[in-house]
Sequence to fold (359 residues):
Amino acid sequence: MIERRSFLAALPAAAGIGAAAQAERPLREVAAQRGMWFGAAASWPLLRDDEVYARHFAAECNMLVPENVLKMQVVHPEPERYVFIPWDFLASFCQKHGMKMRGHTLVWHQQMAPWFQRVATRENARRLLEEHIRTVAGHYRGKIESWDVVNEAIDVKDGVAGGYRKTPWFELLGSEYIDFAFRAAREADPEAGLVYNDYGLDYADEGSAAKQEAVLRLLRGMRERKVPLDGFGTQAHLNVASREKFRPEALRKFLGEVAALGLKIYVTELDVIDQALPDDVEARDHGVAEFYEAYLSAALDVKAVTAVLTWGLTDRYTWLARRNARPSGAPIRPLPLDREYQRKPAWRAIARAMEGRGA
Ligand code: XIL
Fold:
């Protein structure tokens, strides 16, 4: 059962952190000293119900992003109904623990509300988009560090000019839905940084190169059209199976081009799939950590990178558990803390990469 001790009294002894680790500063402190944020995606209601999870979250992170509760399906389940209770909990958690909050995500082709298909037409789609954004981004107006306004709008494989993904919004409104969304977000919350977020940009291969090019074209176009855009998020869901396709110089070049547009950069959803590594825990943790460090030390060379967020904090709760299960059934280990909240080599890799950045 969950321990009932107070937050501070419980740290770090009750967390089971060993003597050596006690001397290590939490990632939020390491990040703050570098003028950065370290955070993770928080899963609700686990953060409410699992006190140990909550305690470690507050100890390590100075930024939080809701993993699911701001997606349309959850926050806007019926045309006239919005559900803010989970978000309200997470927002007060952030406030209590001195953490910044990111918003994820206003426009995405997945986890859309079931009513959307029934209700949306070419005629009303723009109004639906703007109303959704006005209501959701308006809810914590002035309190959100940044919003992933549009998520995953590029997929060159769809064969559309410009590399746009054929999302329901694209089908109804064309590529302009992206500009509409950012403009509505600016109006709803003028203080929040407005971010375009995407994945599949991490490697020095044809797939990543084509997608990088399309993303850069999108971002440049938005700048030229004076669309309110402040940042770019790269999800960075990494896979050890693709480790040899990673080249630090290729990542630095891409992120450097994004930075040259005057945008802030966020590493928004970092985790490392370990299926390609042997079951042996030590070897596995080493392989995962090595990729964390290679990726982050390259990314953090680009000064525009201001935040690193992992997609989950502990191997106990990770979206990859079912998606990328190991053939042996051994639990996967993609995140900085293990299932018992011990700091793993990946945790140290993140700390070293941030420390290596210089003050
Ligand atoms: C994932 C969540 O982690 C899962 O719990 C959910 O079932 C599906 O979505 N890219 C994103 C995130 O931008 O929103 C996704 O989150 C992971 C991939």
Q: What stands out?
A: The longest helix spans residues 206-224. The domain at 4-355 is CATH 3.20.20.80 (TIM Barrel).
